[in-house]
Amino acid sequence: MDLDNTLCYCFHIPKRKVVNFTRQRLPKRASQLSECFGAGTGCGWCVPLLIAIHQEIVGDAAVEAADVTAEQYEAMRVRYRADVASGARKRNEYGDGGGKAAP
């Protein structure tokens, strides 16, 4: 996922905005990333990525690239929302059904 791709679809927040917010503010907890235009407070899908970004920046690791494309990320979110709506998955319960954690 590139920096200019949408990270939080509920509030249309690009990954770049979250990364820059985290670098500038250096929040003590990942939950404080919600101060970045409400990221992570809608459906909850992007919470694992928010946590990963927080950990990477606090730990000085690179956050420029990820192993999932923007299209894959969006499709995974669509499946997550459908599963939550149908009751097949609880909100904030991650994974792709195959045991792999969400990005």
Task: Write up this protein.
This protein is mainly alpha-helical and 103 residues long. 39% of the residues lie in helices and 5% in strands. A two-stranded antiparallel ribbon has the order 1-2. Helix 1 packs across helix 2. The protein is globular. The model is unreliable at 96-103 (pLDDT under 50).
Features:
103 residues, mainly alpha, 3 helices, 2 strands, disordered C terminus
Question: Quick summary of this structure?
Answer:
By secondary structure, the protein is mostly helical.
Q: How many angstroms separate the termini?
A: 10 Å
Number of domains: 1
Number of helices: 3
| Net shape | globular
Q: Uncertain runs with pLDDT below 50, 5 residues or more?
A: 96-103
Radius of gyration: 13 Å
Question: What is the N-to-C succession of helices and strands?
Answer: EEHHH
- For the secondary structure, the number of strands is 2
Return the structural class: mainly alpha
Percentage of residues in DSSP E strands: under 5%
Mean pLDDT: 83
Strands of the widest sheet, in order across it, are: 1-2
Helix fraction bin: 25-40%
Q: Describe the biggest sheet?
A: 2 strands, antiparallel
Helices and strands in order:
Blueprint: E1 6-8, E2 13-14, H1 15-25, H2 47-58, H3 70-86
Helix pairs in contact: 1-2
